[in-house]
Specification:
By secondary structure, the chain is mainly alpha-helical. 53% of the residues lie in helices and 12% in strands. The protein has a single domain, classed as 5'-nuclease (Rossmann fold), CATH 3.40.50.1010. Strand 4, helix 7 and strand 5 form a beta-alpha-beta unit. Helix 5 crosses helix 6. The protein is globular, with a radius of gyration of 14 Å.
Length: 126
């Protein structure tokens, strides 16, 4: 099996809004066509507004949503203690680390120093 990816909320919003550069939009489309993986935190962030577009609801409904089981909770605690990042970012990082996903996010500075976390900025996809 090839590389697997976890999509961060900002990546999904930029993708759905066609804000990514052309080649990056196409590359992300190919990743999404293969498999959509998000954390339960991403689902909460994406659908937690009072008004949500139907295409975003459909996108989330088509995604593999990784819950906060005990393994993710323990990894989140470890990440929060070691890197002192916000709870939602720690859950997302813990999910990516636990499942060996490359995290696609344009908030790379939020995750930059987390040991063994693979990060890909969608604006650098070619």
């Amino acid at each position: 099996m090839g590389k697997r990816y976890l999509l961060d909320t900002n990546t999904i919003i930029d993708y759905m809004g066609n804000k990514l550069p052309g080649k990056a939009q196409i590359a992300l489309s190919q990743i999404i066509d293969n498999e959509i993986n998000i954390s339960v935190i991403n689902k909460i962030e994406l659908l937690g507004f009072s008004k949500v577009e139907n295409d975003l609801v459909d996108f989330v409904n088509c995604s593999n949503i990784y819950p906060m089981d005990n393994d993710i909770v323990d990894k989140t605690i470890e990440v929060r203690r070691q890197y002192k990042i916000k709870l939602p970012d720690a859950v997302i990082a813990a999910t990516a680390l636990h499942y060996s996903f490359t995290l696609i996010t344009n908030n790379t500075t939020d995750f930059l120093n987390i040991n063994k976390l693979k990060i890909l900025n969608p604006y650098e996809l070619e």
